[in-house]
Amino acid sequence: MAEGLPPITAEKIVAAALELTRAHGLDNWSIRxxxxxxxxxxxxxxxxxxxxxAVVAEVTDAVVAAMxxxxxxxPWRQWFTELLVDGRAVMRQHPGVARRMCLVGPTxxxxxPAIDTGVHILERAGFGADAAPVYRxxxxxxxxxxxxxxxxAATPAARYDPHDVLAAYxxxxxxPGLASAARYARYTRERAAGGRTAEDAAAAFHAFTVxxxxxxxxxxxxx
Length: 223
Prior knowledge:
- By secondary structure, this protein is an all-alpha fold.
- The chain has helices at 10-24, 31-38, 42-48, 52-65, 76-92, 97-104, 112-125, 131-154, 162-166, 176-193, 198-218.
- It has two domains: 10-63, Homeodomain-like (Arc Repressor Mutant, subunit A); 68-218, Tetracycline Repressor, domain 2 (Orthogonal Bundle).
- The protein contains eleven helices and no strands.
- The termini are far apart.
């Protein structure tokens, strides 16, 4: 295998693994598939990088490195809004990476500059000893939602239209909460019929979630 081809490098292995991740998700390719994409024996990958966990770590590092880190002079709310909203677009292109980052934490080198800057910005804003846990709270709030988006995209048959379930309650006076939920479900269905895509809706809800998480964090600041 690989006869007559350019030498394999760790960078080429990671690039191929990124392609597989974009196509199938981080958890849905094997070392054998990766070696097949590169036209090399699996042992070549073990030699240059290591086992699958090692390759996954390199892929995660590359994805996180692609997330733009905002200017450290921005106000704390603007800084986190840009990091988390723009970061969603990068994560969604690489299904499974958001879940891994939330599960295993900041274990890749590319995550460290954002953590250093973000926690410092929170300290500067007045969060004090709460700065580090607030950073984790904001990160998890944003990217666990992205992880759920990845899961839904991977299982489209399991999705349902909430209005189908809630429509019977739309005019209910006995269940005012369900009535409000039904009206919201109808509103989202009508917007979809008007041309709003599922991606538009998901991005808007993600931005809404980030804003509300920032509101929650702001409550910790001294008045």
